[in-house]
Design goal:
Layout lengths: L2 E4 L3 H13 L4 E4 L3 H11 L2 E3 L2 H5 L5 E4 L6 H10 L3 E4 L7 H10 L8 E3 L7 H11 L6 E9 L26 H15 L2 E9 L11 E8 L4 E7 L9 E6 L2 E6 L4 E6 L4 E6 L6 H17 L18 H15 L10 H20 L3 E2 L2
Helix pairs in contact: 1-9, 5-10, 6-7, 7-10, 8-9
Length: 367
């Protein structure tokens, strides 16, 4: 198996780190900026190309697309047209109609694997929340409150935030990629949204093109309602806060806590559900031990992601688990099941409804 990583930025470096460990000797890099290509290829001891056609002549079996979101389509389409397996960061594609077209072509069992990235599904607290909801620990879900904020200049401390894609909404920045990432996680917990009403605003002095705060009212297919807030202006906070209210209890988690708070109305008691109770905890810990060693040896810096204060677990292992799952699918060892193209279609449809709602100032049904 030969894998071509497209893009040598922060995410591309994570993918190179993990792929050179999982698939030694079978990893290539395409990065059009010569200086970056040479630096990153050297850091990970892989062959680097600044010309896409030259890279493809090396006959990779699979692509991992780690470019700004707005640039995904060219590489995803080319890979699939050539019959190669394709993995892409969030979102797989920004354009709904193009994504739908490619999804329809992927129904054939003999078609290439479409690896839809949603790394956070490997994050133990998110898995615990899903496990609790699946076993109806709080009864019927009624209300979601979910907030997430982090300061854009801290994403890549090693470079000026005004010089990478996250400053520009047209490239999938200004928090657009994070909206898609978190909408998918919300759907994973509570099922599809049917209606949204959104306000996207620019309130800070950050030098970006697009909004820096995103507020969304949501209605779900199962009858629940919710509120989601995301911003790229918060400094010194703990990141994510999740609260899900049900008929029979409440699930709550702050990212600086190492356990989920589960309140049972029937027992009138709150319990702390540790990450170790996640259904995939043993595998998560194995990956965490591996990733800790890989990160320590990494020579090219990746972006910083704050994780829960669990000394035994590193979030970087989620990327390793995701790449392992993709390689297993691409080599025919197991189907790609962590996130499907149909789920991605629902997420991208919800995302465009959010944008249209913000423009119109009205609640919109997701078609």
């Amino acid at each position: 198996m030969k894998v071509l990583v497209v893009g040598g930025g922060s995410m591309g470096r994570r993918r190179l780190r993990d792929l050179t460990y999982l698939n030694p000797g079978g990893v290539l890099l395409f990065e059009p900026v010569r200086e970056r290509c040479e630096e990153v290829a050297s850091a990970f001891s892989v062959r680097g190309f600044t010309d896409l056609e030259a890279a493809l002549r090396d006959r990779p079996d699979a692509l991992v697309v780690s470019t700004p979101p707005a640039l995904h389509e060219r590489y995803v389409r080319r890979g699939l047209d050539d019959g190669r397996h394709v993995f892409a960061e969030v979102p797989f594609l920004l354009d709904y109609d193009t994504l739908k077209e490619l999804a329809s072509k992927s129904k054939d069992r003999s078609s290439p694997v479409l690896g839809v990235s949603h790394t956070i599904r490997y994050y133990p607290p998110y898995r615990v929340i899903r496990d609790l909801l699946e076993r109806s620990a709080i009864g019927k879900p009624l209300y979601l409150e979910y907030s997430l904020g982090n300061y854009l200049p801290d994403w890549h401390p090693y470079e000026d935030y005004r010089k990478f894609y996250a400053r520009d909404q047209k490239l999938g920045g200004a928090g657009m990629d994070m909206l898609l990432h978190e909408l998918n996680a919300i759907h994973w917990w509570l099922g599809p949204t049917t209606h949204v009403q959104a306000r996207l605003a620019k309130v800070s002095s950050l030098e970006i093109t697009g909004p820096d705060t995103h507020d969304i009212l949501m209605r779900f297919e199962n009858g629940a309602v919710g509120f989601f807030h995301h911003d790229i202006i918060e400094r010194g906070t703990v990141g994510r806060h999740v609260r899900i209210v049900g008929e029979e209890g409440t699930i709550e988690w702050h990212q600086n806590q190492t356990a989920i708070r589960l309140y049972s109305a029937k027992q009138n008691r709150a319990d702390q559900i540790g990450f170790e109770q996640a259904s995939d905890w043993p595998r998560a810990m194995d990956a965490s031990r591996e990733a800790t060693q890989l990160v320590a040896a990494q020579r090219a810096t990746s972006g910083y992601i704050p994780a829960a204060a669990a000394p035994s677990f590193t979030y970087e292992s989620c990327y390793l688990s995701e790449m392992r799952h993709y390689l297993d699918a691409a080599t025919g060892k197991a189907p790609y099941t962590m996130s499907t193209i149909d789920e991605e279609l629902r997420t991208v449809a919800a995302f465009h409804a959010v944008l249209n709602s913000a423009r119109s100032g009205r609640e919109l049904e997701i078609m």
